[in-house]
Amino acid sequence: MPYYRVVGEVPRKRHVQFRRPDGGLYAEELMGEEGFSSDSSLLYHRHLPTAIVKVEAVTPANETRLAPNLPLSPRHFRTQELRGTGDLVMGRMPLAGNGDVRLSYATSDQPSELYRNSTGDECVYVQRGSVRFESTYGVIEAGEGDYVVVPTGTIHRWVPNGQVNVLAIEAFGHIRPPKRYLSQHGQFLEHAPYCERDLRAPAEPLIVAGEEVPVLVRTRGGLTRMFFRNHPFDVVGWDGCLYPFAFNINDFEPIVKRTHAPPPVHQTFEGPGFVVCSFCPRPLDYHPEAVPIPYNHHNVDSDEFMFYVGGDYSARQGSGIDVGSISLHPAGFTHGPQPGAVEAVVEAVARGVTTTSELAVMVDTFRPLDLGQGALACEDPGYAWTWAR
Question: Which is catalytic among the residues 76, 174, 260, 298?
């Protein structure tokens, strides 16, 4: 994270005696990245965060195996057709993934159990509904359009307020703001499309009592359920630059040009081997002879995974794309507007249309995406041929 926060009670200096009201010492827990060489936060627990009393292996209910995108083809998945089974963690339906990132869809109204992902950071986009995110750092109330970024190793759970639909982006590494948006010391620069004021983090500690509390832990080796002697939500204070936060897509400030700008202007986060972009309502390109719609393009080094979450998709008219759709345009395929879309948008501009209302989340990966059972279960088999009609 780009800036320092302090929440709750912390001592004046690090690693000095910090005593509970009963005279005992609070237990420190340093959450740090890259072997003490990157961002970290220091949390103060009422009880030992290391005290486990039992462990058990867990077999996931959903099939997580992925299949290559063969024969190579552009794909269209209709998440509207997926029905939730489980919570926002164990009920994730795998859509696509590779060695850098896993993309899943979940819809649920059930609270999840406590969960710790120790394989990498997560970025969970709330497509519909609202949810309370609870963690050792505190609470974040998240709603439609929120990205919730969860650092590796954070014990947390999701408590929906009714039905919630999310896209889960699970990295095998860390998710951060793009480096080009930050100063050498981590402050957002003036040209960045969002800044520190747009980020929401826990504001106060969350204290929950309990004994022999189960926590589901994911590592690269699989799933384990650890039972902690005391509830891990016992942190009285923390400080540092590593913590969960929420950012709403509607706070992204679009960057526009006189002619059409490529997707890097929409970049929101970066991860190992992938980027996350936000396509938001914005003014149309304003050169008098502009073609204000994406040109045909072939990203030779990346697969494009686009989740359509709101608005009107002029470039996709005639393709079947709608709110809730996901398109996958792989490297090896040239993609662009559907036939007739360019002419339709140029005519609309001539009639006085000056803005676009599209809202979408895109993940570009630099290694091919394999396909999950969730995607194959809701695929539109005719999508690949819509450019030839």
Answer: 260
